[in-house]
Amino acid sequence: MKKRELSDEQKIENFTLKEIFNRKKAELELKQELLAEKLGISQSGLNHYLNGTNLLNAQIASQFARELRISVDDFSERLAEEIRQMAKMVNNKNSSVSIQGSNHGTQNYFTGQSQTNTVNNNFLPSEPHSGSLKKIVMPDNAMLPTFPQGSELTIDTSQT
To answer: Which SMART domains does the UniProt entry name for this protein (predicted)?
Structure first.
């Protein structure tokens, strides 16, 4: 399978990054081998980014920016905007939560029905609460398919 060619804009991003690396490597005492190690990639992988063979993505772009002590904006406005949009979602106060009804020994009112509701993140507990609300993490798959292992559940112990 032939690898997809980068667009001219994408190649310019890669080559701009290469120019920045070549300018800063003496100042930062960086060789390609050391930079590749810091990025967690092989030296040939690093060359593929710098020479316009591999497409830059938000994750690798932010790692390059960190190691070269620059902004992603310095070589890719496209990726910088993508990162800004992702960062906005970190503090987003609302989340969409998909709710799927199921029937496990109960009446068949909601089986197979699903809907997506928007819920304020402050309502979704991330830590155990005092009082009657308790947070548990499913230790195994005993409640599959509704709650797989690792599912976080908030239980109101005041309800019977």
So the answer is: HTH_XRE
**Where along the chain do the CATH 1.10.260.40 domains lie?**
8-90
Query: From its phi and psi, is residue 36 left (phi > 0), alpha (psi between -120 and 50) or beta?
Result: alpha
Per-residue pLDDT tens over the stretch 82-140 = 999 988 887 666 555 555 544 444 444 445 555 555 555 555 544 444 566 777 888 88
pLDDT at 128: 44
Q: Residue 111 — φ and ψ, nearest 5°?
A: -55, 130
Pairwise CA distance, residues 74 & 19, whole Å: 11
**Distance in angstroms (rounded) separating the CA atoms of residues 50 and 39:** 13
Report the alpha-carbon distance of residue 14 to residue 33 in Å, rounded. 18
Distance CA 134, CA 20 (A): 52
Chain centroid offset of residue 133 CA: 29
In CATH terms, the fold of domain 8-90 is: 434 Repressor (Amino-terminal Domain) (1.10.260)
Q: Which residues, in sequence order, are CB contacts of 92 under 8 Å at separation 6+?
A: 121
